[in-house]
Design a protein that fits this description.
single chain, six-stranded parallel β-sheet, alpha/beta, 7 helices, 227 residues, binds nicotinamide-adenine-dinucleotide
């Protein structure tokens, strides 16, 4: 059974109605990203940051996985599939994908602001005064710009096992996520699905660019690997 590793970014969830980030001129849902996704933003205005992620968490209840998420879940019937996602939504899991690693955290979890290992499932709004067991304010379980990426080692290990690498809907601007492509075994096929692909075919051996949205692009990818 071939081992397919799929790296997904915000474009994967665009057809479910969740806005990407670069497509909106570097704003995340109308906000300067450093205001809502950095430790500095958190120290400056906790109310704004809590409200921002509360809105994102609520939005998850209004959206459903798209056909692209479904196609990736179906792919598990015939292949071993690992997904490494930059997304903080839970649409891969809701579509039925079993092996999903969240590189940048999860909207439906919160964590202690004193000890990052104290992580809790969270479905409701998170408010000032919601405390962890060490009595410190809980914060969104999101890896903010400038913070370490605890899942990076695991993501590198998964990527290095790929027989086929598929990258979907990412501007390749956020590091270290964008560097995962450099950890593949040499010569394996790489597929890059994005209507505005931020990659140069000359830079990688065996790279196929599919300049389409996630849904139609994944349909083409599956035809290519089945043929
Ligand atoms: N859904 C989410 O969880 C979400 C949404 C916005 C931002 N973010 C966070 O912001 C960061 C943004 O970096 P990024 O590279 O993932 O996203 P990005 O916003 O920087 O880039 C989005 C990419 O998706 C492409 N795209 C747009 N519509 C598409 C579609 N229908 N199908 C396929 N591709 C499409 C764009 O051409 C672009 O290259 C991430 O690290 C992530 O943590 C997450």
């Amino acid at each position: 059974m071939k081992h397919i590793v799929v790296l997904t970014g915000a474009g994967m969830s665009a057809e479910s109605g969740i806005n990407t980030f670069r497509d909106a001129d570097g704003l995340w849902e109308g906000h300067n990203v450093m205001d809502v996704a950095s430790p500095e933003g958190w120290y400056k205005d906790q109310d704004l940051v809590l409200d921002f992620y509360n809105q994102r968490r609520k939005q998850l209840l209004e959206v459903i996985p798209n056909q692209g998420h479904d196609l990736l879940a179906d792919l598990q019937e015939t292949h071993s599939v690992h997904i490494v996602t930059q997304n903080v939504d839970d649409l891969h899991e809701r579509a039925g994908s079993k092996q999903v690693l969240h590189l940048h955290g999860e909207l439906r979890k919160v964590r202690s602001s004193l000890n990052e290992d104290l992580v809790y499932d969270w479905r409701e709004d998170l408010n000032k005064g919601d405390l962890c067991e060490l009595n410190s304010q809980l914060r969104p379980h999101i890896v903010w710009f400038g913070e370490a990426v605890p899942m990076l080692e695991k993501a590198i290990e998964i990527t290095s096992m790929a027989d086929i690498l598929v990258i979907i809907g990412t501007s390749m601007q956020v590091y270290p996520a964008a560097s995962l492509i450099n950890y593949i075994k040499s010569g394996i096929p790489i597929y890059f699905i994005d209507p505005r692909p931020a990659i140069n075919a000359m830079d990688y051996e065996n790279l196929t660019i599919i300049p389409e949205k996630a849904t139609t692009g994944l349909g083409k990818f599956i035809q290519l690997i089945d043929s």
